[in-house]
Amino acid sequence: MPALSPTMESGNIVSWLKAEGESIGAGDTIAQVETDKATVDFEVQDDGIVAKLLVPAGSSDLTVGTPVAVLVEEAEHVAAFKDFKPEGAPGTDSAASP
Fold first, then answer.
1. Are 66 and 45 in contact (CB under 8 A)?
2. pLDDT tens track for 46-90
3. Are 55 and 68 in contact (CB under 8 A)?
4. Which of 15, 18, 36, 59 is the most buried (most CB within 10 A)?
5. How far is 24 from 32, CA to CA, in rounded Å?
6. Residue 21 region, left (φ>0) first, then alpha (ψ -120 to 50), else beta?
7. What are phi and psi of 80, to 5 degrees?
8. Which DSSP string corresponds to 21-32?
9. What pLDDT is stored for residue 97 in this prediction?
10. pTM of whole model > 0.85?
């Protein structure tokens, strides 16, 4: 989760505007994110392809720095992330038990 405002500590993914496998360009909005003050655009900085969305739309209280998506430069790299889960994510061996 990127910091989309100077005071942002966490945010909610309202909606994804790009799907896995979709090409993106610098400046494209890939998601709508609700912060403590407003709903803002999550714009990408580089060209690439959305390889994996790591959290579903509607996810809430995501701390700044939490991985939310995997972006790659080349289409042939997308398949490598099909089953990817970041370390500590729900459903991985290193995730803490509730």
1. no
2. 999 999 999 999 999 999 999 999 999 999 999 999 999 887 655
3. yes
4. 18
5. 15
6. left
7. -65, -20
8. T-EE-TT-EEEE
9. 39
10. no
